[in-house]
Amino acid sequence: MSLKTQVESGIKDAMRAKDQDTLRALRAIKSLILLEETKGGASGELSAEDELKLLTKAAKQRRESADIYKTQGRADLLEKEEAELAVIEQFLPKQLSEDEVKAKLQEIIARVGAAGPSDMGKVMGVATKELAGQADGRVVSTLVKALLA
Questions:
Q1: Crossing angle for the helix pair 137-148 and 98-112, nearest 10 degrees?
Q2: Average pLDDT over the chain, rounded to an integer
Q3: Which of 54, 37, 55, 38 is nearest to 46 (CA)?
Q4: 27 vs 88: CA distance, rounded Å
Q5: How many CA atoms lie within 13 A of 91 on its CB side?
Q6: pLDDT tens for residues 21-37?
Q7: pLDDT at 149 over 70
Q8: Angstrom distance (rounded) from CA 123 to CA 35
Q9: What gap in Å lies between CA 49 and CA 38, rounded to an integer?
Q10: What are the backbone dihedrals phi and psi of residue 10, each rounded to the nearest 5 degrees, phi first?
């Protein structure tokens, strides 16, 4: 079942349950999907990879907004962002733990043949493709720096 179909089904369920937080998040996801499908040069259908990129971007935006609201003491807005993030994360693949990410990065470093900090670009290129949606880019970057130091 495509992401769009899952989201539309979720919207119906959220409307029946009168769950405004879930409904708002699902409508935001549907909006992103529709925008991506109709933008210039698009084929009208999203690949699984494109769907993953959309969801990852949306989750990242919610996390960043939540961090800002937390520092500003805006509990009301923080709560909304966290609720939307929870809904978005339901559609993302399971996030890897830091230890799992480190193990995968060590494997990638060995495969690429990276020796030091100058090889960070090679490692990050492979790591971002293989760990897409499974780990936050900031965490991956930090771990790669530490492992290559």
A1: 60
A2: 87
A3: 37
A4: 11
A5: 30
A6: 899 999 999 998 888 88
A7: yes
A8: 32
A9: 17
A10: -65, -35
Token digits for 121? 């670009």
In order of 7, 30, 34, 61, 63, the CA distances from 81 in angstroms are: 18, 17, 21, 9, 8
The pLDDT, as a whole number, for residue 42 is 63
Residue 135 DSSP one-character state:
S
What distance in Å separates the CA atoms of residue 55 and residue 44, rounded to the nearest whole number? 18
pLDDT digits (tens, 9 = 90+) for 82-92: 999 999 988 88
pLDDT over threshold 70, residue 1: no
Tokens standing for residue 82 = 């966290």
Cα atoms found within 13 Å of the Cα of residue 9, Cβ hemisphere only:
7
pTM of the model: 0.72
Kindly give the residue spans of alpha helices, DSSP state H, lying in the chain. 3-17, 20-38, 48-72, 75-89, 98-112, 120-130, 137-148
**Which DSSP symbol is given to 101?**
H
60, 81 contact by CB (below 8 A): no
* HSE-CB for 108 with a 13 A CA cutoff: 24
At 106-142, the pLDDT tens digits run: 888 888 888 888 888 888 888 888 887 788 788 888 8
